[in-house]
Amino acid sequence: MSTLPFPVSPVLREVGDYPFLRLDAEKQRVAATGVRLIDFGVGDPREPTDPMIREALAAGIRETMEYPKAVGLPELRDAIAAWIARRYGVTIDPATQVVPTLGAKEAVFSMAAVVVDPDAGRDLVLTTQPGYPVTVRGARFAGAEALALPLEESNGFLPDLDAVTPEQWRRTALVWVNYPNNPTGAVAPLAFYADLAERAAEHGFLIASDEAYSELYFDEPPASALQLPDLSRVAVVNTLSKRSSMTGYRSGFVAGSPELIALLKSFRPTVGTAPQEFVQRAAATAWSDERHVEEARERYRVKRAIMREALEAVGLRIAGSRATMYLWVAVPEGDTSEGFATRLIEHGIVVAPGGFLGPAGEGFVRFALVPTIDDCRTAAATIREVL
Questions:
Q1: Is the Cβ–Cβ distance between 187 and 180 less than 8 Å?
Q2: Among 87, 244, 272, 277, which residue's beta carbon has the most beta carbons within 10 A?
Q3: 146: nearest Cα among 157, 154, 138
Q4: What does the DSSP 8-state code read for residue 102?
Q5: In the chain, what is the greatest distance between 2 CA atoms, to the nearest angstrom?
Q6: What is the spatial distance between Cα 339 and Cα 186, in angstroms, rounded to a whole number?
Q7: For residue 268, is it within any domain?
Q8: Tens digits of per-residue pLDDT, 246-297?
């Protein structure tokens, strides 16, 4: 029973604090002892936002600004559709198949509220683990049960779709996938999306593909669910946060069928999550340019090489990690993910324990390659010295 003088949502009590709040508390404790921290814990890029994007933002501010419309500016929707055409060779209608969002998180959280239907027996959301906890929280607040499919290294960090029972498929309203994957850095082949799409057609659920890391790759550009021939049961979420180092701008999109986008346009005014117009104008500039993305990708490539070399030199094994800004690192034998992370933070190196991202993440820690190149070199030297 709540000790507060008003009711509290049982779902809020159930999900508890966001796990990374514990990491913040640990950082404050160590920093108070005078240790300088190099923070690989959270995937918040510290790369500079390109000047042309900042100029577009400033130019978009007028003396008076009305409420932004949930459908988004036509020029932003046009820019997103043009980027999808260039990147994937796929044509979508900017008027009916894309809607701007306030970053990716709110779109990920609210998707279940749009499609979960307990009265029709569609009360199950499939997620993957380890993974972004917002998919589970969104499902629970929408009144659904969340079923986590483990991402095992032996299966290339892809979920085992055959492990889902026929009864579970009948109850499924929504399946979340995330490739390139946070935290494992794995990528999914187009054949995986095709397999999932066949099951969606058979069982009538929505595929929601979180592709926030689609542009942080080091070999071949990763595939997208947008490349499926039939998008009638597909929602793709993407964002400028990682691609263009614009986490503070909160700008993303959902692309999918006209029917899905119409539902989102109906839902979104209720929750008031339309991006500010000046942010939308900056976003249109960002989606229209690839130069700044290529430059950022090269900086991540350098940082990745620095950290990989140091970690492997002290005998740590790197799993997955083919794309994204993350390195997914197996902890030494006998260590727990949180125990190893605690040992590192005492030397000023902050990483995310894999267990914070779900039980299937135990045995790994995640390095987010967000510090500067110089800080990565400093951290690499520390790792060589203390491990």
A1: yes
A2: 244
A3: 138
A4: S
A5: 61
A6: 24
A7: yes
A8: 999 999 999 999 999 999 999 999 998 889 999 999 999 999 999 999 999 9
